[in-house]
Q: What sequence folds into this?
């Protein structure tokens, strides 16, 4: 059953908070700039979820223990991404991110990267398949140019080539 | 900035012909990103799905995202989930 409602924060307040955030980022991060999507794309579901292949994309700095960690030292951020096998064991996941508290994620990766939950949804027949891979990123990028122009189209291409039908995105 | 990164990636994936939905803890950013579907939940950063080792909470949140995929009819659908941090009695007992 759908339990949601409209946003309880009115558009004027959302605008004010957004502009405050933009100003704060520009004050504190050299080279920061802002961009949003040019158009609001919309792809209807290709069919019932029960037949869909589903992938996760996380910006919580998730990667496998044997993959290079994200660069959390650079003031410019790190626009790279990691490919995480759909059946990766949660105890092989690591979280490299210094802009949110990773203690919950280290206790249970599913709080930011619900890889076990997705398998359970597949086993319960709610979704069709878990995708062959998921995508891990680290969301701290004061200048989003490279994320928008290189990372995003690359990641989208990989997922489309893998015949993924649905992507669930989760921040840190 | 995580939320802006999510928004940019989400837009590109949706443009590639894949249906997407995202969770957000910062609705003021997500609201302005021009994404397809998102759900705001009032949880602390680092806990978008709920508390560690509480699969019931995670499934409650994920279930709402799946329903949003099924029900949203137009882009820039940003909704608010009713769940409250560490006060789950109404939904989970």
A:
């Amino acid at each position: 059953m759908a339990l949601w409602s409209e946003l309880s924060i009115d558009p004027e307040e959302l605008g004010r908070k957004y502009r405050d955030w933009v100003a704060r980022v520009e004050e504190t991060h050299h080279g920061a700039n802002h961009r949003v999507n040019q158009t609001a794309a919309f792809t209807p579901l290709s069919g019932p979820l029960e037949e869909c292949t589903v992938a996760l994309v996380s910006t919580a700095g998730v990667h496998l223990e044997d993959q290079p960690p994200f660069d959390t030292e650079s003031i410019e951020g790190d626009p790279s991404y990691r490919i995480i096998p759909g059946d990766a064991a949660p105890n092989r996941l690591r979280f490299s991110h210094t802009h949110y508290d990773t203690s919950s994620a280290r206790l249970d990766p599913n709080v930011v990267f619900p890889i076990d939950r997705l398998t359970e949804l597949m086993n319960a027949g709610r979704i069709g398949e878990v995708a062959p891979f998921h995508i891990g990123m680290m969301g701290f990028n004061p200048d989003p140019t490279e994320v928008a122009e290189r990372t995003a189209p690359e990641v989208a291409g990989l997922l489309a080539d893998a015949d993924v039908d649905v992507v669930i995105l989760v921040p840190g | 900035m995580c939320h802006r990164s999510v928004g940019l990636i989400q837009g590109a994936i949706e443009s590639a012909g894949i249906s997407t939905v995202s969770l957000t803890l910062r609705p003021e950013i997500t609201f302005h990103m021009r994404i397809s579907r998102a759900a705001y939940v009032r949880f602390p950063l680092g806990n978008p799905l709920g508390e560690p080792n509480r699969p019931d909470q995670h499934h409650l949140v994920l279930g709402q995202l799946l329903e949003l995929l099924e029900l949203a009819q137009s882009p820039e659908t940003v909704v608010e989930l009713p769940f409250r941090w560490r006060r789950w009695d109404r939904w989970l007992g």
